[in-house]
Amino acid sequence: GDLRREGQQQHQQQRHGLRPADYSVMPVYVELTDHVQAAVPDGDIMPVFIHRDILASATASALDRQDHRRAPAWSAILLEVPEGEDGAEEDALLREGLRAAGCPRPQPFTLKQMTHLQLTSATFVHGGVAAISRALARMGVPLPPPDDYPHCLRCQLHRRIWTSSVGELLRHFDGSGGTSSGGGLGAVFVKPLDRRKRFTGFVVAQPDDLASHGLTRRAERLLCASVVRWLTEWRVYVAEGEVLACCNYAGDPALRVEPTVVQEGVAARSAAPGCPAGYALDYGVLDDAGRTTALVEFNDGFGLGAYPGVSAAQYTRLVMSRWQQLLAPLASHS
After folding, report:
1. If you average pLDDT over every residue of the chain, what do you get?
2. Annotated domain spans of the chain
3. Would you state the CATH architecture of domain 76-142?
């Protein structure tokens, strides 16, 4: 009872130099998974003393997540018409998820029709990166810059990452496909640095590889990574800091990524300033001696691909929460 609580408080004060007034001793029921995790034996009652700052932060976080999960009152749903199989899976999942959520009937559109569409803070738009970019531009919302390898997750990459340009890479390579400088650069994996999804990442093993992929402008800026071999790759879908699904999309599906690494990555990215409300982390297992689980890349929640294993409800929640977050500045002024 009271004596036990007093003793526990004094014990905490002696250990950490914290005042009893800093702790809550009331029964509190609040979602604390982002901050505190207590292991309590089955059937036992254990007093848990929570610092008031942590309690306040956890409460605010839980309320914020609940607010995000409330389905916004969209006045219109605009879905870009898929081009062949590209985008068809995402379109089907969204239609099912929107229907289950009781949203208005989706209106299809093409990229050419974007300039004629009526867009407001109550309009939900989904499609490819080009369509999303144009929709946001029309509404005066800046497109978030690419962040394929977040700084807070650099420790999980387990490979070298750097920025370069087409011209710099060409100077590194000699005619035999090796390197004449750059400390034995060797083959390099490249992807666009500034323009999101301008091209799909690929391996440059010789100078001609750049030209064959249409990269002829020497000033074109590139995001580079040392080449590694992945045994398996998995996409982790996250909304409001909660893991929704983990889906294998390449390699051996029987080989799993290390859950602890994934949990740490999700926690770090979700706690970082400016984190998207919906996103995905791609993880893989490296073909090294320790079969290390490493981050493949980070994916923003808009224009996100859906792999088998993510449900309609999960995918819809993720992309809808991200779009709602992007339009939040507009909604606050409407």
Report:
1. 81
2. 2-67, 76-142, 160-226, 230-326
3. 3-Layer(aba) Sandwich (3.40)
